[in-house]
């Protein structure tokens, strides 16, 4: 039983190290362009429709403008 455990322990510790390959190639580094999407979302947020003057006036006077159709 000890021999089986010793072989299993050896396989689980040595086999992953043997499976690793040298992945150094001549490929250029890959860049993350996710920040372009963040700029796009910020731009879309800036393009949303502005609230009308009447909407702003009602909101300032304390009216619940979500229930008023404007």
Task: Give the topology.
Elements: H1 2-19, H2 34-46, H3 53-60
Structure report:
With 70 residues, the protein is mostly helical. It is built from 3 helices and no strands. The protein is elongated. The mean pLDDT is 76.
Amount of beta strand = under 5%
Q: Mean pLDDT across all residues, rounded?
A: 76
Q: Bin the helical content.
A: 55-70%
Shape category = elongated
Indicate the radius of gyration in whole angstroms.
31 Å
**Number of helices, counting only DSSP H or I runs of 4 residues or more:** 3
Low-confidence stretches: none
* Oligomerization category of the chains in this entry: single chain
What is the distance, rounded to the nearest whole angstrom, between the alpha carbons of the first and last residues? 80 Å
Structural class: mainly alpha
Give the strand tally: 0
User: Largest sheet at a glance?
Assistant: none
| String of helices and strands | HHH
Features:
70 residues, 3 helices
Brief sketch in words of this structure:
This protein is mainly alpha-helical and 70 residues long. It has three helices and no strands.
